[in-house]
Specification:
The chain is of the alpha/beta class. The protein has helices at about 30, 75-80, 105-115, 130-140, and strands spanning about 10-15, 20, 40-45, 50-55, 60-65, 85, 115-120, 145-150. The longest helix is centred in the last third of the chain and has 12 residues, at about 130-140.
Length: about 160
């Protein structure tokens, strides 16, 4: 656990073709604003400082929310993304100060931002019925492809040719 208000350990690894965030504990995304390009990090709404991250290549864009409640910053983060990895912790919208999304919140954001694929994650339950109910809620608000994140899952960002 970090001491004296410091961020947990976290590592931003960059190569010529990729940037990867590893071991991202509390406060890491905000601390990375000192080394990441400002347009990659988007301040979001959570009880602890949090930024979503946007990773772009010449062909594809992925955006990741981390913990957040509904906020206008989500639209900027997700705008036109090929894949949005969005937390969907709650079954209903969080109107309080803590800051978490429901599946429907994530889906409305994805739809408004023109996202192609939505991957819901950060679930408090692994119960199949609970997860399928969240997917169904998202499908009522988002017309693109929806996936539920699960351990070991891999998602292609690039759309397969017809």
């Amino acid at each position: 656990m970090p001491a004296n208000g410091q961020a947990s350990s976290g590592y931003l690894v960059s190569t010529d073709t990729a940037t990867l965030l590893l071991d991202c504990g509390p406060g890491v995304a905000t601390a990375l604003s000192a080394v990441a390009a400002p347009d990659q990090l988007h301040e979001l709404r959570h009880s602890a400082p949090n930024c979503g991250i946007r990773i772009e290549s010449a062909a594809d864009t992925m955006a990741y929310t981390g913990d957040t409640g509904v906020t206008p910053g989500l639209l900027t983060l997700a705008a036109g993304a090929d894949l949005l990895l969005a937390e969907a912790t709650l079954p209903v919208t969080d109107d309080g100060p803590h800051g978490h999304l429901s599946a429907a919140d994530a889906a409305r954001t994805a739809q408004a931002a023109g996202v192609r694929t939505l991957v819901l994650t950060h679930f408090p339950s692994s119960d199949t019925e609970w997860l399928l109910a969240r997917r169904d809620e998202a499908a009522r608000a988002f017309t693109g492809t929806i996936h539920l994140a699960r351990p070991g899952a891999t998602f292609e960002i690039r759309e397969a040719p017809p």
